Amino acid sequence: MESAKIQEGQLQGVKFVNDTLTIIYNRRAVRKYKDTAIERTIIEQILDAGKMAPSAINKQPWKFYILTNKEDIRVFSKEISRVAIKEVVKSGVKEIIKTAKEFLHFSHGVDFLKENDPIFHGAPVVIFISSPIDNEWAALDVGMCAQNIMLAAKSMGLDSCPVGLAKFVEQTKIYSRLNIPQSERVNLAIIVGHGNESPEPKERVAGNVTFI
């Protein structure tokens, strides 16, 4: 367990700090990674934590498809980025700047067009998470599962980032290489590895709590 990094004042309204709160408050979306492989046993432990998430009627709809080969990750990243760019163009000329900034993560300082790995940011592990197409609650379940995965990774000294653009893998020419059945959809991917940056915490929205 990594030592607490929370500074006084970051836990406003929280009366005490325990290991769980420390991990929650220190987790960041990291987009730069060291070239260090992650042991399969570690990946499996992180996934086991994901499987402990709650789900509607305990369906546990999530399935995981893992990439760890560097070249495979790079190829999938490039193919997904091509599809993503086409989606931006479809959004229309008036919205293209706004959409590109939000949709392609330009606001995070990533040059989407020049990056060698614009989608997965050099992470050594890519976890695609899918769910049944006919399960209307699956997206919510997968979201909770993904959060468990990211918090578990942080607790083990690793960093992570949810990648929504990964869902466009379904539109790539190499999608079949993941062996995902047609009955499933890709909701997102989680990238995991040893971070090579330390992003500052973003300000949280206030005034969005109403007690009835």
Question: Could you give a quick summary of the protein structure above?
Answer:
The chain is α+β, with helices and mostly antiparallel strands and 212 residues long.
Structure notes:
With 212 residues, this protein is of the alpha+beta class. It has one domain: NADH Oxidase (3-Layer(aba) Sandwich), CATH 3.40.109. It is 32% helix and 13% strand. The chain contains 5 helices and 4 strands. The chain has helices at residues 19-26, 40-51, 70-90, 96-103, 138-155, and strands at 63-67, 125-132, 159-163, 184-193. The chain has a 4-stranded antiparallel beta sheet with strand order 1-2-4-3. Helix 3 (70-90) packs antiparallel against helix 4 (96-103). The termini are far apart. Residues 1-6 have low confidence and may be disordered.
Number of domains: 1
User: How is the largest sheet built, in terms of strand order?
Assistant: 1-2-4-3
CA-CA gap between termini: 38 Å
Q: Mind telling me the CATH superfamily name? A: NADH Oxidase
The ordered H/E elements are HHEHHEHEE
**What's the CATH architecture name?**
3-Layer(aba) Sandwich
Largest sheet: 4 strands, antiparallel
Spans of at least 5 consecutive residues with low confidence: 1-6
How would you state the average pLDDT, rounded?
Answer: 87
Relative strand content: 5-15%
* SSE-based structural type: alpha+beta
User: Number of helical runs?
Assistant: 5
Helix content: 25-40%
* Oligomeric state, counting identical vs distinct chains: single chain
Please give the radius of gyration in angstroms: 18 Å
What's the CATH topology name? NADH Oxidase
Can you identify the CATH class? Answer: Alpha Beta
